[in-house]
Amino acid sequence: MCSISNELIKAETGLANQALIVVKIRAKNINCTGPWSIENEGNANIAACPTKMLAIHNIDPISEIRQDSITVNWTPITGVEAGGENIEIINYEIQYTRTDIAD
Hints:
The protein is mostly loops. It folds into 2 domains: about 1-45, no CATH class; about 50-103, no CATH class. It contains 2 helices and 2 strands; from the N terminus they run H-E-E-H. Strands 1-2 form a two-stranded antiparallel sheet. The longest helix has 8 residues, at about 5-15. The N and C termini lie far apart (about 55 Å).
């Protein structure tokens, strides 16, 4: 088993994000090279990083903005925007800055 990064595949082949990859393999020893395997089944697409998300929003600021908490809502990204078909977003990172504190 071996892994090849999407970035290396794109750099070496010139393929773009979402390009279909069909792979086969063969072995080589000191004497000669063996025959090719059959092509992979199911095929795979080159994945990419998620695209820039839309800004978070409040559905109901009166109920969602409290003294000790703020509820944030966002539009999840899927498909090509998530980095590829059938690529699942596994984590969201939220960054915030308090503007009521003087430096």
